[in-house]
Amino acid sequence: MAAAAMKVGERKKKVIIDSDPGIDDAMAILVALRSPELEVLGLTTTFGNVRTAVATRNALHLLETVGRTDIPVAEGSHVTLKKDTKMRIASSCHGSDGLGNQDLPPATLTKPVDQPAAAFLVEQANLYAGQVTVVSLGPLTNLAPALELDPSFPKKIGQVVVLGGAYSVNGNVNPAAESNMFGDPDAADKIFTCGADVLAVGINVTNQVILSDADREKLQQSDSKYTRYLCKPLAHYFDYHREIYFTEGVYLHDPTALLAAVNPSLMTLAEGAVRVQTAGITKGLTLFRSNDKRYVEMTAWTGMPTVMVAVAVDAPAVVELMMQRLMVDDY
Ligand SMILES: O=c1[nH]c(=O)c2ncn([C@@H]3O[C@H](CO)[C@@H](O)[C@H]3O)c2[nH]1
Questions:
Q1: How many beta carbons lie within 10 A of that of residue 47, not counting itself?
Q2: Which residue from 22, 212, 238, 321 has the least number of CB within 10 angstroms?
Q3: Is 49 in the pocket of ligand 1 (CB under 6 A)?
Q4: 205 Cβ inside 6 Å of ligand 1
Q5: pLDDT for residue 2 is more than 50
Q6: Tell me, what's the ipTM?
Q7: Residue 5, domain member (yes or no)
Q8: Which CATH number belongs to the domain containing residue 315 in this structure?
């Protein structure tokens, strides 16, 4: 199954990618830049795979490398919603620089815009009310303050596609929690319950979307500017997966979420309220309440707005689409 081709005159979907690049974040951003269905309004940065300052540096460097310095980068929060500075950084997974320990030089042409990420998100949501999709690939720390800056943000934002959560499966930080939810569970719980149109893509589906060694070989042979950029980071990501997951392939978490924004029919979705555990040994646990049972007592889910959660994915179609997009230089 491929994404439906765009028809002449059809409007591109406006997206802002909030991310912590990050190897699979970089892949997702590059796929977005190569997706004719999308107009990337900007990148906002957060912590998670790296600290926020490094995420900003990587976002600027990536855009400069592929010639897209026209896209603004707004730097996000350096602390969690609760102002915690001791956040968990997944450097074993992505390398200390987030891109496989290459220690790339900083971008020379561009710097972040003056606005912080949350203000940028609110501004764009007001400028294009109902039309902006935020693709969130890291902890949700920049989105929660947007709710305080503008209480009508949940109604003005078109959709929030969240890469995060582990629905009815173990997490990847510990058995309870997926990394982005663990990074800022307070922010995540706020976004899941704010009433915005939220589509959550968790590792219960992204762990099924695997880039094999043979796929990587094909990417390398294509030698586009996008695959050249990804070559070294991917080598690190493959090593990490071999060592940690005992697989000869890597999970395409962030590209899968990005492609859910391009073509949601790549996933099967279920609707229900999601709450995120904010403390204790299950901190970061995402719990989805499906609508197929009526609970007699009041629960923490009662009366909460519902979100859509991906429960199945057409994994081969996602891998194929991602590869198609990265292997060609430009349209
Ligand atoms: O803590 C982590 N452990 C992982 O194995 C891992 N693999 C990928 N990631 C990043 O976190 C999100 C998925 O949980 C994605 O945005 C990856 O960048 C990970 N984070």
A1: 27
A2: 212
A3: yes
A4: no
A5: no
A6: 0.98
A7: no
A8: 3.90.245.10
